[in-house]
Amino acid sequence: MQALRQHESDIASILGLNLNQKPIVINVFQSRRSYQEFVTRIAPDGKERRALFIQSETHGSVYVYLHADVMTDLRHETTHAILHSSLPFIPLWLDEGLAEYFEVARENRASANQHLKRTKLDARLILTWRPNLTKLETVRDQSVMTARNYRESWAWVHFLLHGPDAANSMITRYLASIEAHDPPGPLSTQLRRVWSKPERQLTSHIKSWK
Q: How far apart are CA 77 and CA 82, in angstroms?
């Protein structure tokens, strides 16, 4: 629990969020079986997932079961919970990209995420890897998010947090607008005001990152 408190503090500090006081309830099951039996009753579509986050009007609920990598699941789902307790809404790609980014231990976020090696390979295959944030922004249903969608969402988040200063200030301003209930529109539009082809900036950033 202490590690998760630090996790919450990191998210607020890095993204410039004012943490909401809505509670987050974490439910830890002893086994996968007991987890699935419970989740089947409240969210049947989620029973095959290793972990689940559900937001209600009053609080966020995280459901996980004990296994070797449970902390990764807890960090991922509590990231969703923290974002949804602090923001009135968040685009799906950004919600998932941030959860993928923050799910690893803090010392590994920048350079040891599981997505980095694969995305570096993707970035070298110019003919097959064509990141397109505008297209990614049209995905509104998590059930149709593909593994490539998750990797690309993570890649854009990595670029926004570790790329040029203009990108870093852009994501904090974008989230601040959402927090203020002032819909900022697609982030891809804002990126194109700075870079005519932000996909090239993303590819260059990923290829050069150590």
A: 9
Q: Which of 210, 209, 179, 176 is nearest to 190 (CA)?
A: 176
Model's pTM, two decimal places?
0.95
- pLDDT exceeds cutoff 80 at 142: yes
Long-range contacts of 126-132 (CB under 8 A, 24+ apart): 126/203, 129/203, 130/199, 131/155, 131/156, 131/199, 131/202, 131/203, 132/199
CA angle, residues 103, 39, 146, in degrees to nearest 5: 50
Secondary element (H or E) of residue 26: strand 24-29
Cα angle vertex 110, ends 108, 111, to 5°? 70
Strand partners, 24: 60
Report pLDDT digits (tens) over 15-51: 999 987 789 999 999 999 999 999 999 999 888 999 9
Q: Specify the pairing of strand 51-55 against strand 24-29.
A: unpaired
Element (H, E) at 92: helix 92-102
Distance CA 202, CA 120 (A): 11
Residue 84 is encoded by which pair of tokens? 């949804």
Q: Give the integer Cα–Cα distance in Å for 35 and 18.
A: 32
- pLDDT at residue 2 in the model: 85
What whole-number distance in Å separates Cα of residue 105 and Cα of residue 131?
Answer: 26
Span between the terminal Cα atoms of the chain, in Å: 31
104-141 confidence digits (pLDDT tens): 999 999 999 999 999 998 888 766 778 999 999 999 99
